[in-house]
């Protein structure tokens, strides 16, 4: 029998954003719904380097009204199910898979969405398994599987950190890590613990930044603690941090030369790119309006809906908004999960469904309506 391919709502992606918004949609009674995932549930987390851990801590605090920072639903806690404060990627994928199975969330894996087009008052999604159609689409495909690969001459000689299975198996004794934010410091930490000589290169010098409370803009406390330990444990220079821009990388006689404005840095192994992600939104770029200055999608502040294509919602770490107080950057789970209930409520209202079951999100402080209150420097000490 042929599988059903027409739904009221299709969610693209079954990671933290997809599973989380899918749970909210199920709570309001959306029955004709499907999550499409090109790999397995939590596929991006399964691809993390083996040693990589969440920088946001998990704690089973639900009973006192404080939802675990890494939970995608108020009644769940990765800390409880995984017994880890800073879970690894494969562990977190197990949590997401458990949520899907426990709640019988409809997920179809192995389906790669390649394009979306408007059709018959809804959307047509072209995939490796044929066409699907939906009245509403929630794009929750994430970032990790869409790496940014450098943008400088010789970047092809480097390897992006998303392609590393384990830092323990890294061959070579000297490594350059290009990019000094969370994933760059994480790579340096694990490589240095394996006795490697590491240089971290980033023109912004993120390890120097202070005075900002939003961890979307500065290194998290977890990462800063690691940075300070590397400075203290390796004063002789096993780990170096250089605030310069990489201009090019050359491969020469089995070595690699990383060239900055003032330095030529030789290494005996391929440089690591910790340069972030392009994100999956390039696949639906024409369905979105874009902020010309910062190149992020312009969405409705009420529910992260495309201002160009009604019925298309964006959910996950790609979402950001300009506000009266600056920029709201929703790139952590504990941030973007605050929008699950708003997307679900908007879709439910248009389908004339009861939205009252979403009160549990309000009751547990898992709803962010006023984006002007998000992400500012709200700490006095």
Walk me through the topology.
Layout: E1 6-12, H1 16-27, E2 33-37, H2 43-46, H3 78-82, H4 89-103, E3 107-109, E4 113-119, E5 122-127, E6 130-139, E7 159-160, E8 174-178, H5 182-193, E9 197-201, H6 221-233, E10 239-242, E11 248-252, E12 255-259, E13 264-267, E14 272-273, E15 289-290, E16 297-298, E17 312-314, E18 320-323, E19 326-329, H7 333-336, H8 340-350, H9 359-363
Parallel strand pairs: 1-2, 1-6, 2-3, 6-17, 7-14, 8-9, 8-14, 9-10
Antiparallel strand pairs: 4-5, 5-6, 11-12, 12-13, 15-16, 18-19
Helix pairs in contact: 1-8, 5-6
Task: Tell me what the structure shows.
By secondary structure, the chain is an alpha/beta fold. The chain folds into two domains: 6-145 and 277-373, FAD/NAD(P)-binding domain (3-Layer(bba) Sandwich), CATH 3.50.50; 155-273, FAD/NAD(P)-binding domain (3-Layer(bba) Sandwich), CATH 3.50.50.60. It has nine helices and 19 strands. It has helices spanning 16-27, 43-46, 78-82, 89-103, 182-193, 221-233, 333-336, 340-350, 359-363; strands at residues 6-12, 33-37, 107-109, 113-119, 122-127, 130-139, 159-160, 174-178, 197-201, 239-242, 248-252, 255-259, 264-267, 272-273, 289-290, 297-298, 312-314, 320-323, 326-329. The strands form five sheets. Strands 1, 2, 3, 4, 5, 6 and 17 form a seven-stranded mixed β-sheet that branches. It has a five-stranded parallel β-sheet with strand order 7-14-8-9-10, with helices on one face. Strand 11 (248-252) and strand 12 form a beta hairpin. Helix 1 crosses helix 8 and helix 5 runs parallel beside helix 6 (221-233). The longest helix has 15 residues, at 89-103. It is globular. The mean pLDDT is 94.
């Amino acid at each position: 029998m042929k599988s059903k391919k027409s739904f009221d709502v299709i969610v693209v992606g079954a990671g933290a954003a997809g599973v989380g918004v899918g749970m909210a949609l199920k709570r309001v009674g959306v029955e004709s719904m499907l999550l499409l995932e090109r790999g397995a549930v939590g596929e991006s987390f399964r691809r993390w380097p083996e040693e990589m851990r969440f920088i946001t801590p998990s704690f089973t605090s639900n009973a006192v009204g404080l939802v675990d920072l890494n939970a995608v639903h108020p009644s769940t806690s990765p800390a409880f199910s995984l017994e880890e404060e800073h879970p690894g990627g494969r562990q977190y994928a197990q949590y997401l898979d458990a949520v899907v199975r426990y709640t019988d969330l409809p997920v179809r894996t192995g389906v790669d969405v390649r394009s979306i087009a408007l059709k018959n008052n809804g959307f047509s999604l072209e995939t490796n398994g044929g066409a699907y159609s939906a009245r509403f689409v929630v794009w929750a495909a994430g970032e990790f599987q869409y790496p940014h690969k450098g943008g400088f001459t010789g970047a092809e000689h480097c390897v992006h950190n998303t392609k590393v299975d384990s830092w323990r198996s890294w061959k070579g004794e000297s490594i350059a890590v290009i990019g000094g934010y969370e994933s760059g410091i994480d790579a340096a930490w694990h490589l240095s613990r394996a006795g490697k000589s590491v240089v971290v290169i980033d023109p912004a010098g993120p390890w120097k930044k202070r005075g900002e409370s939003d961890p979307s803009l500065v290194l998290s406390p977890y990462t800063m603690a690691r940075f300070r330990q590397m400075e203290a444990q390796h004063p002789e220079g096993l780990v170096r941090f250089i605030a310069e821009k990489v201009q090019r990388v050359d491969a020469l006689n089995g070595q690699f030369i990383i060239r900055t404005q003032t330095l030529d840095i030789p290494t005996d192994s391929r440089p690591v790119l910790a340069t972030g992600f392009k994100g999956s939104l390039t696949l639906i770029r024409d369905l979105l309006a874009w902020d010309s200055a910062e190149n992020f999608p312009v969405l409705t502040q009420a529910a992260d809906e495309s201002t160009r294509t009604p019925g298309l919602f964006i959910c996950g770490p790609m979402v950001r908004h300009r506000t009266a107080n600056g920029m709201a950057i929703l790139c952590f789970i504990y941030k973007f999960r605050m929008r699950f209930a708003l997307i679900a409520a908007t879709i439910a209202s248009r389908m004339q469904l009861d939205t009252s079951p979403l009160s549990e999100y309000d009751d547990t402080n898992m709803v962010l309506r006023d984006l002007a209150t998000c992400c500012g420097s709200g700490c006095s000490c």
